[in-house]
């Protein structure tokens, strides 16, 4: 079986819309150039460029036309995927395994500010949901209520899991939100979409990120520090479905199952050294503990309360600070893969979790769309295989 | 190089039009008569109408009529004025905070979202308790119905 590795990355520190201060293609150029420079690779060696972006967020149709040359795509294959950076990674890996490419750049940027609630409303069907003003935050509230209804999780648990993410984000020099919000402050922040307060819902972050994938043979020539992709999975939820189907995280379940099978993971809580999860709202992290098989059904809050998912716990989740700390709407998946690579290569400041060998990275389009039809992607990354 | 950076602002405005197809057109038309249509697909019923089942991947066999009575499955209390795509002829009148609920109409295999009113919005934990027990709700209809989803103003408890 041929293998694919992540061989380099470039990333801007994430910030607010007012502070990012550059064009989207300029930001994409900077991070791609940084990624190439790290491994002394010239842009002409790139075979394929895959961009993660959504026109609704950028206010430009076919926004990849502007962005692709900035990521080194002139005269090369290029495409754009709207579902997120790890979906781009899946396509990059498929290209390499099929033999059509040897070196693939996945790049993404967030520099354009827009009305996320409006864009999210525009992702809804025009018959039943969009006319009601339905959007992502309302989805998050409905799912969080379901979590309260069917598990022993409480509003205090939602605040505590948020505080864990903010604590980790405060240590991460690349994270957007470094305020280290504590549980009491989170719980008493303005109510956004009950049971979720304002600080429990990820806000847009601005920056850019690029990552380079290569075939096994090329990876070994380019770097002494390859991070290998040993499992991939993608899954999609129903848009119209029963509440059980819509709230059951079936897309993530399918994605994780497939990735685990490929990577030979039988017991995720023991086999994985850490997890980087796209958690656009507090309760989603607890829901995902169960879906990813990190705990038994109904035991997610216990897992968090026992400290198992803290940085010094048995299965750390979101050492980087997660989506609550950094939520690039186009680039979160690429950013999250880079966080995992940095942690595995010992490059993430203030992170001491021994010598991690195996990690799960997750991404989805939930932070923009809403309940139903959301697509989830999971990668298993490994060192020394 | 100067450190000066400026911002350029713009706004996209573009009109769209989409055929509603036979089933959705029937559904919209029936709303004017306070009838909430669904479809039967295999052993399951779907309210509102659906052209296919995502799970079984089958087509509908027949159209079902109902009064729209259902059970609340989840809810959230949204605390902002929604930023919404414009739908000519379908004005949104809710004011924050308001409740959005997931509702199963007549044991529908498809959850439906709409506004919930007539409950104590200041006591969400009590509302959570009541939906755990099975809170039955019915649509409250607008006086002047246009044939769109906002012909239902909101749902309210059947017991109220």
Features:
heterodimer, A: alpha/beta, Peroxisomal Thiolase, Chain A, domain 1, 2 domains, two-stranded antiparallel sheet, 17 helices, 11 strands, 38% helix, B: alpha+beta, five-stranded antiparallel beta sheet, three-stranded antiparallel beta sheet
Overview of the molecule:
The complex is a heterodimer of chains A (385) and B (160). Chain A is α/β, with parallel strands linked by helices and 385 residues long. Chain A has two domains: 4-115 and 205-222, Peroxisomal Thiolase, Chain A, domain 1 (3-Layer(aba) Sandwich); 134-203 and 232-382, Thiolase/Chalcone synthase (Peroxisomal Thiolase, Chain A, domain 1, 3-Layer(aba) Sandwich), CATH 3.40.47.10. Chain A has 17 helices and eleven strands. Chain A has a nine-stranded mixed sheet with strand order 3-2-4-7-1-8-11-10-9. Chain A has a two-stranded antiparallel sheet with strand order 5-6. The longest helix of chain A has 17 residues, at 155-171. Chain A is globular and about 55 Å long. The two termini of chain A are 13 Å apart. With 160 residues, chain B is an alpha+beta fold. Helices cover 12% and strands 30% of the residues of chain B. In chain B, the strands form two sheets. A five-stranded antiparallel sheet of chain B has the order 6-5-4-7-8, with helices on one face. Chain B has a three-stranded antiparallel sheet with strand order 2-1-3, with helices on one face. In chain B, a hairpin with a 6-residue loop joins strand 5 (98-105) and strand 6 (112-116). Chain B is globular. The termini of chain B are far apart. At the A-B interface, helix 6, helix 7, strand 5 and helix 11 of A face strand 4, strand 5, strand 6 and helix 2 of B. Strand 5 of chain A pairs antiparallel with strand 4 (70-78) of chain B.
């Amino acid at each position: 079986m041929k293998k694919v590795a992540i061989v380099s990355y470039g990333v801007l520190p994430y910030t607010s819309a007012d502070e990012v201060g550059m064009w989207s293609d300029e930001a994409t150029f900077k991070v791609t150039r940084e990624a190439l420079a790290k491994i002394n690779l010239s842009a002409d060696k790139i075979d394929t460029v895959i961009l993660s972006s959504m026109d609704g967020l950028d206010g430009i149709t076919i926004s990849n036309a502007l962005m692709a040359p900035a990521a080194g795509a002139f005269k090369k294959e290029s495409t754009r995927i709207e579902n997120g950076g790890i979906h781009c990674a899946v396509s990059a890996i498929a290209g390499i395994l099929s033999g059509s490419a040897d070196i693939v750049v996945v790049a993404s940027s967030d520099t354009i500010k827009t009305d996320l609630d409006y864009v999210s409303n525009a992702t809804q069907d025009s018959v039943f949901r969009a006319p009601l003003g339905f959007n992502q935050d309302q989805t998050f509230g409905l799912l969080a209520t379901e979590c309260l209804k069917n598990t022993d999780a409480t509003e205090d648990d939602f605040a505590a899991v948020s505080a864990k993410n903010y604590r980790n984000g405060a240590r991460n020099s690349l994270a957007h939100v470094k305020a280290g919000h504590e549980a009491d402050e989170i719980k008493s922040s303005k109510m956004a979409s009950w049971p979720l307060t304002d600080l429990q819902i990820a806000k847009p972050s601005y920056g850019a990120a690029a990552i380079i994938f290569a075939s096994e043979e090329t990876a070994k020539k380019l770097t002494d520090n390859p991070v290998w992709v040993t499992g991939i999975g993608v899954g999609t939820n129903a848009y119209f479905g029963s509440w059980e189907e819509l709230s059951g995280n079936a897309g993530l379940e399918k994605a994780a199952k497939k990735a685990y099978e490929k990577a030979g993971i039988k017991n995720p809580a023991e086999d994985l050294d850490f997890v980087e999860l796209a958690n656009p709202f507090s309760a989603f992290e607890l829901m995902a503990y169960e879906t990813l098989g990190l705990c038994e059904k109904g035991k997610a809050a216990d897992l968090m309360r026992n400290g198992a998912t803290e940085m010094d716990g048995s299965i750390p989740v979101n050492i980087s600070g997660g989506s609550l700390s950094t939520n690039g709407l186009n680039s979160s998946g690429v950013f999250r893969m880079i966080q995992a690579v940095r942690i595995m290569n010992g490059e993430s400041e203030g992170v001491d979790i021994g010598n991690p060998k195996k990690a799960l990275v997750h991404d989805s389009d939930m932070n923009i769309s809403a309940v139903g039809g959301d697509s989830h992607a999971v990668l298993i990354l490994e060192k020394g295989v | 190089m100067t450190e000066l950076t400026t911002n350029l602002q713009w706004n996209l405005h573009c009109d769209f039009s989409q055929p509603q197809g036979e089933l959705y057109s029937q559904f919209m038309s029936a709303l004017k008569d306070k009838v909430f249509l669904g479809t039967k697909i295999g052993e399951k019923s779907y309210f509102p109408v659906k052209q296919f089942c995502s799970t079984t991947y089958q087509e509908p066999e027949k159209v079902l009529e109902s009064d729209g009575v259902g059970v609340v499955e989840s809810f959230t209390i949204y605390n902002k004025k929604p930023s919404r795509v414009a739908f000519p002829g379908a004005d949104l009148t809710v004011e924050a905070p308001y409740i959005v609920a997931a509702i199963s109409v007549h044991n529908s295999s498809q959850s439906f979202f709409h506004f919930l009113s007539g409950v104590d919005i200041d006591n969400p934990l009590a509302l959570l308790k009541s939906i755990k027990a099975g809170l039955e709700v019915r649509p409250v209809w607008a006086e002047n119905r246009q044939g769109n989803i906002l012909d239902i103003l909101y749902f309210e408890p059947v017991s109220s």
